[in-house]
Amino acid sequence: MRDLVGHRFVTDSREVKPGDVFVAIKGNRVDGHDFANQAVQSGAFAVIVEKDVSLPNQVVVPNTVEFLGMFASKILEKFGPKIVGITGSNGKTTTKEIVANVLSAEIPTFKNEGNLNSEIGLPLSIINSYRGEPVIVLEMAQRNVGDIEYLCKLFPPDIGVLLNVGSAHVGVAGNVDSIFKGKWQIVENSKEALVNFDDERMRCEKCKYFGTKGGTYVLKERRFDGKNTLLTFETSEGEFYYALPGFWPKAMAISVLVAFAVTDMLDILFNPIKLLTFKPLKGRFNIHRLGKAFIIDDTYNASYESFKHGIEEIKEHFPRPVYAVVGAMKELGEYSTYYHQLLSKLLEEIDGVVVYDKESESKDITPANLLFRSEKEDEIVKFIKDKILAPEFSGTLYFKASRAVELDKIVDKLLEDTNA
Questions:
Q1: pTM assigned to the model
Q2: If both were cysteines, with which of 89, 99, 191, 406 could 166 make a disulfide (CB 3.0 to 4.6 Å apart)?
Q3: pLDDT (tens digit per residue) in 146-197
Q4: Domains of the chain by range and CATH?
């Protein structure tokens, strides 16, 4: 096993380069074992498999996914870093990025790449990219109850952060209570916990709290002066004031508060220098100007709760009229109709709605202020350009749906066509 250290691990045989280790994983649709020979032909140093595939450089293990986790866990055991684990229904990736940016200004900090946050992606990120940094920030995802506990057993957090618990993936987890139970496992399996005071379900003896209504670390005020977002944090030690360039939505301000709390809990200076140039990840409330209009790209993913936060943000800070271009929320299972009907009522708080019917679940988005709907991308683009984005339009156009809808393609098309 020691011979495997220092090699890049991959789970897709098409990505194998000479010297890589190919890990064969049996999925719902594809079995990686069928591609082990192809990986060897591409120069794989070794193939990790669960059964004999008659290759000279095979390493047979009982379970390849568990092997990945244990291999990554042993790497961390060698260096003994402080581990910050982050989970929640919304905002995990942005919070991970902000926390890591703040910490790295003072101490070498590792973070898992992109959204490699699962029982496969997280170990891969550690194996391939961790270089002994004394602090690591890990985003931990849950699709099924037990996923968070599994990741915490492998990578036990010194601080477990639970941001929020909503309806995302409720169709997979079963119900909202199950989602909460699963995400609460990060609290149960961490030395210390940092949780959302505004959610009354989140209470425990070892918990510290962030929030807007009270807690250990409080976002007391957030104000946009046209150029900077001014944040006031309150702790038992008094108030702290920060000015960050541009508009920071409430969710991102909360992420900064979490970073403030994590640095305090680790006894590291809160240094926001890297936040002065921080850009939101693509599809997470990206603000574009199109003539006099605001285009807001929030297309990375969607749940009812994240829709609610986004619309509240726009109503408070952006000019009317406000139109939303929306699509389906995925992985809601038997709750799909219920949450899409709730969304329909929510959308009636703005001036008009366009529905992109690429995914079947969107049939249940039926607000009274519906302007247009189509399953064709070009028809949606044409309607927006012809009926909304007139030269004199000075309002706001908000785009949001689950990632599978690919609503970002419509945003990109509008921005390209207008800027061409």
A1: 0.89
A2: 89
A3: 999 999 999 999 999 999 997 655 656 567 788 899 999 999 999 999 999 9
A4: 2-61 (3.40.1390.10), 67-275 (3.40.1190.10), 286-417 (3.90.190.20)
